[in-house]
Amino acid sequence: MLIANNIRNVRKHIPAHVRLVCVSKFQSVEEIREAYNAGERHFGESRVQELKAKMPLLPADIHWHFIGHLQTNKVRDLLKLRPYLIHSVDSEHLLKAINDEALKQGFVQDVLLEVHVARETTKSGFTPEELNSLMGNGQMANFSHVCVKGLMAMATNTDDETEIRRCFTMTKTLYDQINGHMVNVPMVNLSMGMSDDYQIAIECGSTMVRIGSSIFGERNYSYKLKAVFFDQDGVLFDSMPYHAKSWVLAMTEYGFPFSEKQVYRNEGRTGSSVIREAGGNDDDCEKIYKAKSRYFNQLTGGKLPELIPNIRDVLTFLHNNNIQCWVVTGSGQRSLLDNLNTTFPDVFSGVISAYDVTQGKPSPEPYIKAWERSGFKKEECFVVENAPLGVRAGKAAGLFTIAVNTGPLPDSELLAEGADCVLPNMKVLVEFLQKTIKNQ
Q1: What's the start-to-end Cα distance of the chain, in Å?
Q2: CATH for 256
Q3: Can you say how many angstroms the Cα of residue 230 is from the centroid of all Cα atoms in its chain?
Q4: Cis, bond preceding 362 (omega within 30 deg of 0)
């Protein structure tokens, strides 16, 4: 009930005409659902992939606001999700990309234009001069598939209330000036104010506030570690090269051209999910997965793949410090699952596999199930992954997620999914754990 109490306390300071957007980025599905049950319907996310993972698991009447920096190469994926409002349109180039993609998809996207009024070069947005030029000389007629609903701004990161008021007042003045020229479709939203400054923003005319930590609490990673959830393939076993080759052979055999890079990018999904993603049906799932298992056993000679270098050191260290170890895998490969206890006797407290979930990674369900069964608090657990979709699942579950890059994909793909850190190998992970335990 903590989140519900926080919402009640925040709403005491928000007038009825001001919309509250609960900033749910990095928060778990359960935490968002608690805010939803407290009556909230507007939530803000800052990563396209995180939003994509959460949406199917939450009520359909939620209005999703995209509040983070948006790269043009993510516009297509975001618009497929039909966000209620995009707050962070910070350039004419991005505005055009959104318009062009909305035209292709056949709808009109509501947006806010971000204004750069803070005295920080790290903030982005239109300058007041650029905004007046865009909105005042008829250029908006070129953007038929976006509707500008208002402006968004962030104040300078400072404790100086005078500077914060300057930023918000400047934005409100600009908002009023532009609205004076927009007789037919006036702007209705002025998105200003976050947890630290929303009351000042409301005094300065804000009609929409974006509040995260005052509702969900500060993210605190100074925890006492009690459980680590490990992916299997590419984390425990050096099995991914065999999986990659066997998937390519099986998919090609049944007329679905597939590359090894696609395998690595789909790593973590259940087998049926991979096949359906490639266009297969239920019959294909059964046939192709049997063929994939057959090829896998042929390639490995029926033997277990080698262990990832230094993974025994990681597990031994955790075991000696009374920290639980769990396996959370999308695999249904019996040859690997059946040998976990033989290979790592008395190490794992539990296993969550493809047989335990209805939705595999990138859904957070596998990691949520492991966390629930562990009985610990989320801040007492973390995830060790090697694949982008696994990282996405761990973060969507609200867990601290470490990526150990044991495969061919660049670190950037793991970071793009929200990994809290990317390590090069298990030896470095041991050092990370030693420092963590020492500081507890």
Answers
A1: 28
A2: 1.10.150.240
A3: 19
A4: yes
Where a domain ends, among 300, 315, 341?
300
Reported as a single tens digit per residue, the pLDDT across 339-387 is: 787 888 888 988 898 888 888 888 999 999 999 989 888 889 999 999 9
β 146-153/400-404 pair status: unpaired
Residues 118, 200: one domain? yes
User: What domain range is 270 assigned to?
Assistant: 240-300
Residue 181: CATH number of its domain: 3.20.20.10
State how many domains the chain has. 3
pLDDT digits (tens, 9 = 90+) for 86-118: 999 999 999 999 999 999 999 999 999 999 988
Using H for helix, E for strand and C for coil, what is the string for the chain? CHHHHHHHHHHCCCCCCCEEEEECCCCCHHHHHHHHHCCCCEEEECCHHHHHHHHHHCCCCCEEEECCCCCHHHHHHHHHCCCCEEEEECCHHHHHHHHHHHHHHCCCEEEEEEECCCCCCCCCCECHHHHHHHHHCCHHHHCCCEEEEEEEECCCCCCCHHHHHHHHHHHHHHHHHHHCCCCCCCCCEEEECCCCCHHHHHHCCCCEEEECHHHHCCCCCCCCCCEEEECCECCCECCHHHHHHHHHHHHHHCCCCCCHHHHHHHCCCCHHHHHHHCCCCHHHHHHHHHHHHHHHHHHHCCCCCCECCCHHHHHHHHHHCCCEEEEECCCCCHHHHCCHHHHCCCCEEEEECHHHCCCCCCCCHHHHHHHHHHCCCHHHEEEEECCHHHHHHHHHCCCEEEEECCCCCCHHHHHHCCCCEEECCHHHHHHHHHHHHHCC
Q: Side-chain half-sphere of 389: how many Cα atoms within 13 Å?
A: 23
Q: Is residue 344 assigned to a domain?
A: yes
**Last residue in a domain, options 300, 326, 347:** 300
